[in-house]
Amino acid sequence: MATIAFIGVGNMGGGMAANLAKAGHSVRAFDVSDAALARAVAHGCTGAATGGEAAAGADAIITMLPAGDFVRAAYDGVLFAAASPHAILIDCSTIDVATAKSVGEAAAQRGLAMVDAPVSGGTAAADAGTLTFMVGGPEAAFAAAKPILEQMGKAVIHAGGAGMGQAAKICNNMILGATMVATAEAFVLAEKLGLDAQTFFDISSKASGQSWSMTSYCPVPGPVPTSPANRDYQGGFAAALMLKDLKLAVAAATTAGASVPMGAQAEALYQLFANNGGGGQDFSAIIRLLRGPARGQ
Ligand code: NAD
Question: Least crowded by CB within 10 Å, which of 42, 75, 84, 177?
Answer without folding.
Answer: 42
